[in-house]
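User: Please fill in residues for this 315-position structure.
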């Protein structure tokens, strides 16, 4: 891009993922703040990736595709105004790299948004802090989209997926009853409850809104993918929830991981392999909703949220 001061940058942030099996150790070392994973943990992690990618590593393409889809949508809505840059929390290009790229292109104002609808000081808050510190250093005025968990088009996209998932569950289970919808998200350390963090409440608000729109009466929220640390994490974990539902006589489960927006390790392994195996062992049928990825309604959710945040620059 040529030098320009009239365009608005869009820093699209996400957690990041390794680009190949060779990058797994460095990636998790970064997540662990410079502490390499033990040989046992590394072997387990690599085994999980091998199970879902089978030697081909498409996970980064999911994020790249979302950023490209968002650029296309913004161009449709406001031709020539917005330019998207990518910034990852634990992989290259890092958040700071994305801000530096904007500065080199002459961007003076930008909107920061994360590919995650729900705000937590431990997740979105951390992304925004890094982005703002670098933007301030380089003289870029930064507006933030903190959450978009109740955006009508996000809810519509999720509702359609739940309805489709229930149809697939009915076919897969042979019409077995009763069934339950489990909304899920990545667990965080339980200490967030002590500081009034909005993460849990926002997830419940999204789940309730989608359940109502999809006419789902029997649903509950559960957690997944907790970190392997000594401190307590939010629960119950989905594997424990499945055990409880089995004891209650539930025969079919539809998992709606509303805290995630693309096919990733926590979806493709933790749900599609691990949770599905546990459910099968309990005599239950488990299906999962399709992820948002580049769904047009999700792209519109992001684009409209960015436009709203960018309106601060005209004040």
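Assistant: Residues filled in for all 315 positions:
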């Amino acid at each position: 891009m040529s030098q320009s001061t009239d365009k608005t940058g869009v820093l699209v942030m996400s957690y990041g993922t390794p680009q190949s099996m060779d990058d797994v150790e460095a990636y998790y070392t970064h997540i662990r703040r410079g502490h390499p994973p033990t040989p046992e943990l590394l072997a387990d992690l690599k085994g999980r990736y091998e199970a879902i990618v089978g030697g081909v590593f498409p996970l980064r393409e999911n994020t790249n595709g979302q950023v490209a889809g968002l650029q296309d949508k913004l161009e449709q809505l406001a031709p020539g105004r917005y330019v998207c840059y990518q910034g990852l929390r634990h992989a290259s290009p890092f958040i700071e790299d994305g801000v530096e790229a904007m500065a080199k292109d002459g961007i003076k104002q930008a909107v920061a948004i994360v590919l995650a609808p729900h705000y937590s000081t431990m997740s979105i808050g951390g992304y925004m802090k890094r982005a703002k510190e670098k933007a301030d250093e380089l003289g870029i005025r930064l507006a933030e989209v903190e959450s978009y968990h109740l955006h009508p088009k996000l809810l519509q996209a999720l509702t359609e997926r739940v309805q489709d998932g229930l149809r697939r569950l009915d076919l897969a289970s042979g019409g077995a009853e009763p069934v339950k919808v489990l909304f899920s998200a990545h667990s965080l350390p339980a200490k967030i409850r002590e500081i009034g963090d909005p993460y849990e409440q926002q997830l419940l608000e999204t789940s309730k809104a989608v359940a109502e729109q999809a006419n789902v009466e029997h649903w509950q929220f559960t957690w997944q993918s907790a970190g392997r640390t000594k401190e307590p994490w939010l629960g119950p974990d989905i594997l424990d929830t499945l055990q409880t539902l089995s004891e209650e006589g539930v025969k079919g489960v539809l998992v709606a991981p509303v805290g995630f927006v693309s096919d990733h390790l926590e979806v493709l392994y933790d749900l599609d392999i691990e949770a599905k195996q546990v459910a099968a062992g309990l005599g239950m049928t488990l299906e999962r909703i399709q992820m948002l990825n580049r769904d047009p309604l999700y792209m519109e959710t992001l684009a409209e949220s960015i436009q709203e945040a960018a309106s601060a620059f005209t004040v």
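For context: The chain has a mean pLDDT of 95.
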